[in-house]
Amino acid sequence: PADEDTPDCVFVEDTCVVVGDRALMTRPPCKPRRKEIDAVEKCLKSLGIKTHRIYDKKAILEGGDVLFTGKEFFAGESIKSNLAGHKALAETFPEYPVHSIPVEEPEFHLKGMLCMAAPGTLVMPRNKHGRLAWEAVCEKSEYTYKPMWVPNHCGTNCLHINGTIVHCTEEDYPKSCKVFKETMGDYKLVQRSIG
């Protein structure tokens, strides 16, 4: 049933970070959002996923600030996540490096300026925030990634799922959609309004 006390609950990625059979339940800075964590944790446990909690009261972390490349994590240092939250991420997944990436306002999540289009390919907006994110990745990463630049800020929003890339629609962001078609044509591309 709908819970009018949690209007942001549709943004379910903010509540947890899941890799394999482990999940870190996040700690959003907005206290009403913390109600969502229990419901998502119950669901994850029912699927056999081992959950971990953040107990440091100074730590904040939202999933929109966490990008997993399959080899390492990039974590946004933003108004929604801090270094104490990044530490909890590193403790939950010690086999993967965690690199902090500064996020400047008006952006409030890392994924507003950096997403994973496909294995080895990161997508960023062609603006100051995208350039800063790319510079930080190049400086901190232990791996090499291919950059994909899109002209629209919201055009970065995408998901790579088992060889399929879900990305912006031609109607919403025609120039960014064109970049996906031209650059990622070897993948199945699915357009969805996700901005």
State the strand order across the main sheet.
Answer: 1-2-3
Number of strands: 12
Mean pLDDT: 93
Outline the biggest β-sheet. 3 strands, mixed
User: How much β-strand is present in the residues?
Assistant: 25-35%
H and E string? EEHEEEHEEEHEEEHE
Give an overview in words.
The chain has about 200 residues and is of the alpha/beta class. Helix content is about 25%, strand content about 25%. It is built from four helices and twelve strands. It has helices at about 35-45, 85-90, 130-140, 175-185; strands spanning about 15-20, 20-25, 50, 65-70, 75, 100, 115-120, 120-125, 145-150, 160, 165, 190. It has a three-stranded mixed beta sheet, with helices on both faces. The longest helix has 13 residues, at about 35-45. It is globular. The two termini are about 25 Å apart. The relative contact order is 0.11.
Summarize the structure.
It contains four helices and twelve strands. The chain has 195 residues and is an alpha/beta fold. The strands form four sheets. A three-stranded mixed beta sheet has the order 1-2-3, sandwiched between helices. A three-stranded mixed beta sheet has the order 4-5-6, with helices on both faces.
Features:
195 residues; alpha/beta; 3-stranded mixed sheet; 24% helix; globular
